[in-house]
Amino acid sequence: TCSVFSLLLLGWNYFMCADEDCTFNGVLTQLVRAVTVLSIGALLFTSSMIMNVTFGLMTGIGTIDRLKKKANNTIAEAIEEPIPLKDVFGIGAYWTWLLPIDPLLEDHDRVLGYSTPQRLLREEMRDEPTRGFSPSGLSKDMLSI
After folding, report:
1. CA torsion angle for 113, 96, 100, 49 (degrees, to 10)?
2. What is the distance between the alpha carbons of residues 70 and 61, in angstroms, rounded to a whole number?
């Protein structure tokens, strides 16, 4: 957004200026050209990253996996499915998608692909509150240390 805004602002001031009051001197002309090149580079990089993420969500395969399959000639055997948006943004309200907060996931362990021992113990305690020992034979009091 900033790259687009700066390009529009610089383009308007640099190319649409026909008045004597808004002419650029030699140094400012070089600075405008440098900022224009940097803004175009930032815009292209950001656009490339957004398109890469969009492609990954739509196809269910990331860049590294795609390159590995291409190197092994196994792209035709790909069975990946698109990634549901609820696995990326969670099941919270849509306005939370724009905030840098942890999403509330429907099945945390499935989405992340692992579970922490604390989470497993917490779920075990929730499911069986009368049980005094964990399957490993250790007391729950000992595990909290």
Report:
1. 70
2. 12
Element (H, E) at 113: none
Cβ(90)–Cβ(104) below 8 Å: yes
Q: Check pLDDT > 70 for residue 19.
A: no
Q: Which of 20, 16, 31 is nearest to 8 (CA)?
A: 16
State pLDDT tens for residues 102-131.
888 888 788 888 888 887 888 788 877 665
Per-residue CA distances from 62 to 2, 36, 48, 101, 102 (Å): 27, 32, 14, 23, 22
Q: Compute the Cα dihedral for 118, 124, 130, 135 and give only its sign.
A: negative
- Is the overall model pTM greater than 0.70, yes or no? no
Alpha helices (H) along 16-127: 26-59, 63-71, 85-89, 108-112, 117-127
| Mean pLDDT estimate for the chain | 77
Cα–Cα distance measured from residue 84 to residue 89, given in angstroms and rounded to the nearest whole number: 9
Those residues with Cβ within 8 angstroms of residue 85's Cβ, 6 or more apart along the chain or in another chain = 57
Q: Which residues pair with 133 in a beta bridge?
A: 139
